[in-house]
Amino acid sequence: MEIVDLLAPEAVIAALKAQSKKQLLQELAQHAARITQIPERRIFETLNERERLGSTGMGQGIAIPHGRLAGLGRICGLFARLETPIAYDAVDDQPVDLVFLLLAPEGAGADHLKALARVSRLLRNQATCEKLRAATRPEVLYALLTEPTNGGAHSSQAA
Protein backbone atom coordinates (compact mmCIF):
# COMPACT_ATOMS: atom_id res chain seq x y z
CA MET A 1 0.00 0.00 0.00
CA GLU A 2 1.47 3.30 -1.10
CA ILE A 3 0.69 6.95 -0.35
CA VAL A 4 -0.35 7.49 -3.97
CA ASP A 5 -3.10 4.87 -3.38
CA LEU A 6 -4.41 6.82 -0.36
CA LEU A 7 -4.09 10.43 -1.41
CA ALA A 8 -5.62 12.27 -4.37
CA PRO A 9 -4.09 15.57 -5.56
CA GLU A 10 -7.26 17.42 -4.52
CA ALA A 11 -6.90 16.02 -0.98
CA VAL A 12 -3.87 18.20 -0.21
CA ILE A 13 -4.28 21.52 1.60
CA ALA A 14 -1.25 23.81 1.58
CA ALA A 15 -2.18 26.35 4.27
CA LEU A 16 -5.05 25.25 6.49
CA LYS A 17 -6.16 27.76 9.10
CA ALA A 18 -7.13 26.35 12.50
CA GLN A 19 -6.85 27.81 15.99
CA SER A 20 -7.50 24.62 17.97
CA LYS A 21 -7.53 20.86 17.68
CA LYS A 22 -11.35 20.84 17.55
CA GLN A 23 -11.39 23.41 14.77
CA LEU A 24 -8.73 21.45 12.88
CA LEU A 25 -10.79 18.25 13.09
CA GLN A 26 -13.87 20.17 11.89
CA GLU A 27 -11.93 21.59 8.91
CA LEU A 28 -10.55 18.16 8.05
CA ALA A 29 -14.02 16.62 8.28
CA GLN A 30 -15.41 19.32 5.99
CA HIS A 31 -12.73 18.67 3.33
CA ALA A 32 -13.00 14.88 3.72
CA ALA A 33 -16.79 15.04 3.28
CA ARG A 34 -16.32 16.55 -0.18
CA ILE A 35 -13.90 13.77 -1.16
CA THR A 36 -15.73 10.80 0.39
CA GLN A 37 -19.39 11.87 0.09
CA ILE A 38 -19.76 10.86 3.76
CA PRO A 39 -21.54 13.48 5.92
CA GLU A 40 -19.14 15.93 7.57
CA ARG A 41 -20.75 15.42 10.99
CA ARG A 42 -20.14 11.63 10.89
CA ILE A 43 -16.49 12.13 9.96
CA PHE A 44 -16.00 14.71 12.72
CA GLU A 45 -17.66 12.46 15.34
CA THR A 46 -15.51 9.49 14.26
CA LEU A 47 -12.31 11.57 14.56
CA ASN A 48 -13.40 13.00 17.90
CA GLU A 49 -14.17 9.53 19.30
CA ARG A 50 -10.72 8.32 18.24
CA GLU A 51 -9.03 11.32 19.89
CA ARG A 52 -10.85 10.52 23.15
CA LEU A 53 -9.04 7.15 23.19
CA GLY A 54 -5.69 8.95 22.99
CA SER A 55 -4.13 11.71 20.95
CA THR A 56 -3.11 10.93 17.38
CA GLY A 57 -0.36 13.54 17.71
CA MET A 58 2.77 11.43 17.20
CA GLY A 59 5.32 14.11 18.06
CA GLN A 60 7.66 16.39 16.11
CA GLY A 61 4.76 18.49 14.82
CA ILE A 62 2.93 15.58 13.20
CA ALA A 63 -0.59 14.21 13.73
CA ILE A 64 -2.34 11.32 11.99
CA PRO A 65 -6.02 11.56 12.95
CA HIS A 66 -7.85 8.48 11.70
CA GLY A 67 -11.01 6.45 11.96
CA ARG A 68 -13.25 3.86 10.37
CA LEU A 69 -16.51 4.75 8.69
CA ALA A 70 -19.39 2.58 7.52
CA GLY A 71 -20.26 3.30 3.91
CA LEU A 72 -16.77 4.32 2.87
CA GLY A 73 -15.68 2.42 -0.25
CA ARG A 74 -11.91 2.49 0.23
CA ILE A 75 -9.15 3.85 2.47
CA CYS A 76 -8.54 7.48 1.70
CA GLY A 77 -6.31 10.20 3.04
CA LEU A 78 -6.14 13.96 3.25
CA PHE A 79 -2.98 15.94 3.98
CA ALA A 80 -2.90 19.43 5.48
CA ARG A 81 -0.01 21.73 6.21
CA LEU A 82 -1.21 24.18 8.85
CA GLU A 83 -0.62 27.89 8.41
CA THR A 84 0.22 28.14 12.12
CA PRO A 85 1.10 25.21 14.42
CA ILE A 86 -1.57 24.40 17.04
CA ALA A 87 -1.68 22.64 20.41
CA TYR A 88 -2.75 19.03 19.81
CA ASP A 89 -1.94 17.04 22.98
CA ALA A 90 0.85 15.30 21.07
CA VAL A 91 3.03 12.75 22.84
CA ASP A 92 5.90 15.27 23.04
CA ASP A 93 3.60 18.25 23.86
CA GLN A 94 4.87 20.06 20.74
CA PRO A 95 2.41 21.96 18.52
CA VAL A 96 1.31 20.24 15.31
CA ASP A 97 1.63 21.65 11.77
CA LEU A 98 1.62 18.56 9.50
CA VAL A 99 -1.56 16.48 9.53
CA PHE A 100 -2.40 13.36 7.55
CA LEU A 101 -6.04 12.33 7.97
CA LEU A 102 -6.74 8.68 7.24
CA LEU A 103 -10.26 7.27 6.84
CA ALA A 104 -10.94 3.58 6.31
CA PRO A 105 -14.03 1.46 5.64
CA GLU A 106 -15.44 -0.17 8.77
CA GLY A 107 -14.16 -3.64 7.84
CA ALA A 108 -10.71 -2.56 6.59
CA GLY A 109 -8.87 -4.41 9.38
CA ALA A 110 -5.23 -5.04 8.50
CA ASP A 111 -5.32 -2.67 5.50
CA HIS A 112 -6.21 0.21 7.83
CA LEU A 113 -3.20 -0.64 10.02
CA LYS A 114 -0.92 -0.99 6.98
CA ALA A 115 -2.02 2.43 5.73
CA LEU A 116 -1.38 3.98 9.16
CA ALA A 117 2.08 2.38 9.30
CA ARG A 118 2.85 3.63 5.77
CA VAL A 119 1.87 7.23 6.61
CA SER A 120 3.72 7.08 9.91
CA ARG A 121 6.89 5.83 8.20
CA LEU A 122 6.71 8.63 5.63
CA LEU A 123 6.22 11.35 8.24
CA ARG A 124 8.97 10.03 10.51
CA ASN A 125 11.45 11.00 7.81
CA GLN A 126 12.83 14.32 9.02
CA ALA A 127 14.08 15.45 5.59
CA THR A 128 10.63 14.83 4.08
CA CYS A 129 8.97 16.83 6.87
CA GLU A 130 11.38 19.74 6.36
CA LYS A 131 10.49 19.79 2.64
CA LEU A 132 6.76 19.60 3.45
CA ARG A 133 7.08 22.53 5.86
CA ALA A 134 8.92 24.59 3.23
CA ALA A 135 6.44 23.89 0.41
CA THR A 136 3.59 26.34 -0.10
CA ARG A 137 1.73 24.91 -3.11
CA PRO A 138 -0.57 21.85 -2.96
CA GLU A 139 0.92 20.28 -6.09
CA VAL A 140 4.42 20.47 -4.56
CA LEU A 141 3.17 18.91 -1.31
CA TYR A 142 1.45 16.14 -3.29
CA ALA A 143 4.63 15.44 -5.27
CA LEU A 144 6.70 15.28 -2.06
CA LEU A 145 4.21 12.95 -0.38
CA THR A 146 4.00 10.56 -3.33
CA GLU A 147 7.52 10.66 -4.75
CA PRO A 148 9.14 7.24 -5.23
CA THR A 149 12.02 7.98 -2.84
CA ASN A 150 9.42 8.28 -0.08
CA GLY A 151 7.94 4.94 -1.05
CA GLY A 152 5.35 6.73 -3.17
CA ALA A 153 4.26 5.17 -6.45
CA HIS A 154 7.24 2.98 -7.29
CA SER A 155 8.74 1.68 -4.05
CA SER A 156 7.94 -1.94 -4.90
CA GLN A 157 10.34 -1.82 -7.86
CA ALA A 158 13.96 -2.73 -7.28
CA ALA A 159 16.23 0.30 -7.08
Order of helices and strands: HEHHEEEEEHHH
Amount of helix = 40-55%
Number of strands: 6
Ends: how far apart? 18 Å
Note the overall shape.
globular
User: Can you name the CATH architecture?
Assistant: 3-Layer(aba) Sandwich
Uncertain ranges: 151-159
CATH third-level topology: Mannitol-specific EII, Chain A
Mean pLDDT: 92
Write down the domain tally: 1
Number of helices: 6
Classified by CATH, the class is Alpha Beta
Question: For the CA atoms, what is the radius of gyration?
Answer: 14 Å
Provide the β-strand percentage band.
15-25%
Largest sheet composition: 6 strands, mixed
The CATH homologous superfamily: Mannitol-specific EII, Chain A
Q: Give the structural class.
A: alpha/beta
Brief digest:
With 159 residues, the chain is an alpha/beta fold. The chain has helices at residues 3-6, 21-36, 40-53, 110-123, 126-134, 138-146; strands at 12-16, 57-59, 62-63, 66-69, 76-86, 96-105.
What are the key terms here?
159 residues, alpha/beta, Mannitol-specific EII, Chain A, six-stranded mixed β-sheet, 22% strand, globular
